[in-house]
Amino acid sequence: MTDDLREKIFGGLFGCAVGDALGVTFEGMDGDESRIPAMSGGGQFNLRKGDVSDDTLMMLALGETYCETGEFCRDVFLRKVILTLREDDTTFGRTTKTTAMLLEQGCLPERVVSLVHTIFGSRTNGSVMRTIPVGLVPLAEREETARQISAFTHYDKDAGECCAVITKAAAGLAAGKTKAEVLDEIPPAFFTGNPVPSVDAVDAVKCALMCFRDGSDYADVIRRVCVLGGDTDTIGCIAGGLAGILWGVPQKWVDELRVKDRILRVAEGLAAAGEKSMPIYTKKEI
Ligand SMILES: [Mg+2]
Questions:
Q1: Domain assignment of residue 20, given as a range
Q2: Is 197:227 a contact under the CB 8 Å cutoff?
């Protein structure tokens, strides 16, 4: 484990959380060019300054699952989802809420995800918001693992593909690839059309990737997310995760997070896992 990789793991997790906490203020609003992100809470759930929403809570649940079990164990993760929602489900979306409710009633996970998909469709961004940790630990079949983890709650194949794309980008940045190299590996379809900042997985990932592509540093990426409006917290979490790995996150915002200590513990755990076998990218391997 190099200090550099360790820093990138911390940047990825804090990047997600800060992007979520900054974006949540503008969630559901129309676009506005004049927006400057600031840690101020509020938003449609009237959160406190420094609070995070479902995006960070799910990302941490997945990260903690790995720290505790050494893998992304579905049953452990789903148990954490249930416990998280029992504590406070205010900021969660319909797919995850319904899934947790049916799981609590004892339904089998496979049945639950296909049932929720049949009733509502499941091409929502709830599985993409948590996927960054999958890009930060040693994994042989990373993209396939990301698709499988998406399917813990989201049956939709496009949602799974979005997770694979973001996870691969996170892993590339963590291994030292440049932004240009990472963007080059993303299917061009994710950069077509105008950004639509909705809760749809593909729409949200397109917005996150465009903001990441066009941003000049972490703060500028999140500013671009907030300017778009819509699902700013989730798009901020996804784009912020990538930006945080590449550039790190301004310490002022890290210190303002109420979940800072919990994130530090998860980052330590993921970094410890990475000590074993995280492949380090070198130019020679291109
Ligand atoms: Mg949220």
A1: 3-279
A2: no
